[in-house]
Hints:
Layout: E1 2-10, H1 19-29, E2 49-52, E3 60-70, H2 79-84, E4 91-98, E5 106-116, H3 125-133, E6 139-143, E7 149-153, E8 158-165, E9 169-177, H4 187-195, E10 203-213, H5 219-227, H6 231-242, E11 243-255, E12 268-273, H7 276-280, E13 283-289, E14 301-306, E15 315-320, E16 324-330, E17 335-336, H8 347-350, E18 353-361, H9 370-382
Parallel strand pairs: 3-10, 11-13
Antiparallel strand pairs: 1-3, 1-4, 2-3, 5-9, 5-10, 6-7, 8-9, 11-12, 13-14, 14-18, 15-16, 15-18, 16-17
Amino acid sequence: MSKLRLLFVKEAQASYISHLDLMRTFQRCFPRTELEIKHTQGYHPHPIISIVLPLPVGQSSECELLDFEVTQASDGCGIAEKLNTGMPTGIRVLDCYEAKRPIRELDSLQADVTLEYDAGVPEGAAEQLRELLGRDTLVIQKRTKRKELADVDIAPMIRKADVTADDHNVFIDLTVQAQNPGLNPQLIEKAIVAYLPALTPDFVRVRRRRILDANGQEDLETFAEAMSGNVHKRRLRVALERMNSVADLGRAAAAGDGVDWEDHPESESCILYDSSAVSAADEIITVCGQSMEPQFHNGDRVLVQYCSELSYGDIGIFYVPGMGGVIKQVAHDRLHSLNPDFDDIFPYEDGAKIIGRVLGKITADMIPDADEQALYLEARENC
């Protein structure tokens, strides 16, 4: 009998799958592994599986852990590949290994929290948030398991909070206590609403990056170190699963006047954390102008999937003779500018050609740091 642990990603549409539905998803995929999962005893046996530190609905993660037991001896080799053949979009198993370490030793979570402001980040927001998250006391109201509101001081549970900002987003590199008690990074929004209501964001995104022990190590790293002494090889393999690259030809799409596509720098690859949008993208194009505000701003870089057809309401990249590349929304008989201060384009009159569909824009939390990018490049070369 063996106790195994999965390391998996949950993102995109899958981030809205509830905990119970996620458990059912894995239960239905386990037969693909040809392993005999240990079940409970009694009249209604069910598989013995548990998701460690379950992720709240609406948040994404690249470091989820699931424990399960099998009746035969197994080291987990090849299990991830078999499970991935049946997983829905947004769930991807990175590795399967023996569960040697007790879960109680994993005491902190590292997450990227993005605060989005449609009208732009308020002046001085980053400085005010740094001061707020650095306080010795930060009391908010939290609903208990009995559905009652109780005052909770979350300051002792914040291990680190690095705050940066661009024109429309505030990015918080957050490390919090994972358990006994743990802090949901989403509660940072409650603290902002309570103490800095003028900085209340329009939308909050949370992506869990790491689950760490007291020494700052991930569970997989500790396992590889104990079993083989070759942490690096295992990290290379996981890097290939966590990240992907998209071509950047240096082209820009106008959100205003056209942009000439004949003169652009040499192409290069942009390394990003993998997701369904990143995997589907063929090129990265830079927005130039303000005609697609508030959704896309000057300087935004968007993921584009080449295609020949678009549907009503899609955002696309088009080539218009005499204008060059433009980014617009497909309307009934025109290419629509979201910003009312800019004119629409009539494709039948102007001879516009579809280049591709815009899948989304690149945000700071999608870009790995320099060390992770170097690891990915090494993995591509050697694995």
